[in-house]
Every structure is written in C-alpha cells, then in structure tokens.
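step=encode ok
step=design start
structure_in=
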C-alpha cells in the first residue's frame, strides 16, 4: 500500500486519480482549497474513505504552502507519491498577497515549494514519485524566461508556456539532485472539470460547443498520472503528452543552465 498525496485531489482529474488509486488499495491524502468539495469527495468514496483524508489549504501563497506542509509532515513520516493537479485558468491581471500572478503561483511555484518542503517525507519512501500536471507543453528549449517570475503585466498567451515549462525544469532538477526519486510532467489533455470557472464567457461558451467533439474523459486525463504512481518501470525525468497513452513517454532534456536559473529564482522566492 502506497501513501499518495494529491494536491488538487478534491476536484476534477485529481479526484478521478484518487478514486482509481483508492480502488487499488492505496492510502490517499487530498489537498484542495474548498473544504466542502473535500468533504463531498470523501463521502463519495464509500468504505474506502477509511484510507483517505482531506486537508484544506490555499496553495496560492507562500504561507499557505508552508502551513499545509507543516500539517502534512506532522501527520505523515513517509509519502510515496506527490501528485500536483492544482491549477487555475485565469487570463486576467491579478496578484496574490505575495505579489505573484495566481497562474504562476498555483500552476508552478506551489508545486516547487510544496515538494521542497515535503522532501523529508518523500526521501523515506522506497521509490518516491513526484508528478506535475500541465497542459500540452512538450519539453523544449527556446522559451522566453526573461519575464520570470513577475510576469508583469500578465499576458496569458505569452506567459503560460514558460510558467508551465518551469514544471519540466523542476522535474529535471529533482532527478538530478534527489537520487532514487522519479519526477514527471503529465499533459491533462482537455477534460470537462471546474478548471474553466474563472475564464471569460466566450471561452466557456467555446468549450461548451466544442467540448463534446474534442474533450477527453476525466478517466483518460487521469490515466497517465495513475500509471506513473502505480508503476516503477519508467525513466525519469519524463513527460507524457498523450492522455490515456502511458507508452508514449518523452524524456525531458532541457538546458541545465535554464533549469538552474529557474530553480535559483524559485528558491529565492520561497526560501525552500
Ligand atoms: N481540464 C482541462 O481541460 C485541463 C487542461 C489543461 C490543463 N489542466 C490542468 O490539469 C490540472 C487538473 O485540473 P482539473 O481540470 O481537474 O480542474 P479542477 O477540477 O478545477 O481542479 C483544480 C484543482 O486545483 C485546486 N486549486 C486551485 N487553486 C488552488 C489554491 N489556491 N490552493 C489549493 N488548491 C487549489 C482546486 O481546488 P478547489 O476546487 O478547492 O479550488 C482543484 O482541486 C490543473 O493543473 C489544470 O491546470 C486541465
């Protein structure tokens, strides 16, 4: 039985991954912002809820991440897998209390920060795994990191790629610096979840019309995450670009100088 922490596990793709891993017999810890969604998720698990718990946390701020990590480390000596399916889809300008854009803070920095703080528990596992979910962003050099980390003013079209690619760089960094730890990035594909809730009306309307034609099922979007936790035969750092196809695995090879620079900035921001 593995102990699996899913940040974003109270909703959507993370919740689906939690359901499948619970059915396998694993122990699950779900992390999310909305306690009502957490309670509803636990109630939906039936008797398997005995092996699940929920922790409410706002991971968009440094203090929120630190508080969550403190509570998690108090309760769990060892974590086998840390899955990040937290995410917001917001195209407008706004700032967290730390002065960062929420898309950057939630979809990348909270993953770096929480993982760094959870390393003592991950190092206690036989083969620790860290999986980060993004959109379809194949690992490739050439992204513009000059606006990292302020992204001021935020421009979704321009800034989403370097922010999401920071996850790939962090997977490469973890592989290099944490012997025995396997790290990966998974493309979510396109699934009908709560992710569109903060988007402009025309994006939601477009998704409603085109969704039935192009959307993956939530099960398909969760498949590669689940397999990455279940199996120990994949090479790190890796990227799964096609939802539902665990055999289509791309090694992450990126410029180590870019990786070091992004990690240095992340460390300075979080002290972690
Ligand atoms: N669905 C898609 O088509 C799609 C496409 C591309 C990428 N993705 C990515 O796939 C991942 C899973 O998304 P999803 O589709 O399953 O959407 P979702 O149902 O909205 O799930 C997102 C999760 O992130 C959590 N979250 C957001 N802000 C948070 C914060 N400040 N603190 C703590 N938790 C926070 C949410 O918790 P609450 O609900 O409690 O706020 C929720 O559990 C995300 O990383 C998303 O960016 C999805």
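sequence_out=
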């Amino acid at each position: 039985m593995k102990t699996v922490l899913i940040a974003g596990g109270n909703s959507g793709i993370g919740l689906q991954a939690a359901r499948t891993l619970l059915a396998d017999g694993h122990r699950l810890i779900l992390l999310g912002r909305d306690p009502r969604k957490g309670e509803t998720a636990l109630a939906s698990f039936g008797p398997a809820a005995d092996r699940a718990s929920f922790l409410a946390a706002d991971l968009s701020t440094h203090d929120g991440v630190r508080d969550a990590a403190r509570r998690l480390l108090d309760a769990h000596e060892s974590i086998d897998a840390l899955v990040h399916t937290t995410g917001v889809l917001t195209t407008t300008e706004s700032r967290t209390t730390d002065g960062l854009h929420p898309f950057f803070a939630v979809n990348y920095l909270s993953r770096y920060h929480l993982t760094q703080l959870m390393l003592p528990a991950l190092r206690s596992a036989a083969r620790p795994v860290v999986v980060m979910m993004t959109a379809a962003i194949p690992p490739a050099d050439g992204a513009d990191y000059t606006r990292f980390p302020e992204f001021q003013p935020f421009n979704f079209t321009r800034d989403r790629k370097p922010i999401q690619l920071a996850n790939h760089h962090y997977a490469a960094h973890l592989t290099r610096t944490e012997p025995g730890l396997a790290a990966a990035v998974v493309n979510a594909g396109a699934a009908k979840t709560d992710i569109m809730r903060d988007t402009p009306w025309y994006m939601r309307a477009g998704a409603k019309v085109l969704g039935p034609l192009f959307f993956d099922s939530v099960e398909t979007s969760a498949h590669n995450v689940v397999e990455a936790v279940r199996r120990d035969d994949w090479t790190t750092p890796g990227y799964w670009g096609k939802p539902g196809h665990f055999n289509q695995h791309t090694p992450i090879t990126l410029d180590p100088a870019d990786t070091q620079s992004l990690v240095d900035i992340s460390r300075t921001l979080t002290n972690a």
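step=design ok
step=annotate ok -> The helical segments are 12-24, 35-44, 62-75, 102-123, 156-177, 201-214, 218-230, 256-270.
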